[in-house]
Amino acid sequence: xxxxxxxxxxxxxxxxxxxxxxxxxxxxxxxxxxxxxxxxxxxxxxxxxxxxxxxxxxxxxxxxxxxxxxxxxxxxxxxxxxxxxxxxxxxxxxxxxxxxxxxxxxxxxxxxxxxxxxxxxxxxxxxxxxxxxxxxxxxxxxxxxxxxxxxxxxxxxxxxxxxxxxxxxxxxxxxxxxxxxxxxxxxxxxxxxxxxxxxxxxxxxxxxxxxxxxxxxxxxxxxxxxxxxxxxxxxxxxxxxxxxxxxxxxxxxxxxxxxxxxxxxxxxxxxxxxxxxxxxxxxxxxxxxxxxxxxxxxxxxxxxx
Length: 305
What we know:
This protein has helices at 4-26, 29-36, 40-54, 70-98, 111-118, 122-128, 181-186, 207-214, 230-238, 252-257, 289-304; strands spanning 59-62, 65-68, 104-109, 133-138, 153-158, 166-172, 175-179, 200-201, 243-247, 261-262, 275-280. By secondary structure, the chain is an alpha/beta fold. It folds into 3 domains: 4-98, Arc Repressor Mutant, subunit A; 104-173 and 274-304, Periplasmic binding protein-like II (D-Maltodextrin-Binding Protein, domain 2, 3-Layer(aba) Sandwich), CATH 3.40.190; 175-262, Periplasmic binding protein-like II (D-Maltodextrin-Binding Protein, domain 2). The longest helix has 29 residues, at 70-98. It is globular and about 65 Å long. 27% of the residues are buried.
């Protein structure tokens, strides 16, 4: 029988390896901490402990992040493989003993896309394909398609080609300006130049700068609250804090219910030159659970366009 101290030591080493692999893959202690649900300091301490035990510097500290040293790259690659094997073995063991549905799939997307477009449609998937259990991983982190933390499919914002996977166009990213009915009732806006004096809500996509450039006012100064996520910008707009410039598909329900209204007429949309894409590791067969979900999503998007 193994000694308890040995089991605790093995567990600690496993945590160190998790921290090491996540830091190497994501390029910073902060991003690794967010993925592992621990503090940034804990990840940094675990990585330093590994460097101390091995007597080898594992990362080069860069001005904006971390990079594995040449000596560490092969080691981290084998650590990643070992962790993947442990995860696969654990998943297989649990599936064999808890009666898990063989058709459980994981979809990665952003929180805004999940809450504003996907979730209202999920009951339809359940009714049409009750044998499929779809897990939504809502995060700004780009998940891999294999190994630790791997997902089966992803809906991603941008323009192909993506770093990994096969991409199929899903929905356009055309943005429109919206605000609360109360705010619009206080002002009169007719042209893009009128909005320069309005409180403009910004998010990480910085759409307002491109919008003013598109309509002939480059460098137009503007002010208003700023948020790191589009979902927060939309919440702020619904609370009357200002005007948000966001993908039209995110506000259809709010426009229908009257929580939001269009600020200007339809002549002033922004072509973001990006869109939402259905991404899988490789082309999927239609007769698989994954293929069924992908085709359902594509059909929902086609009906929406």
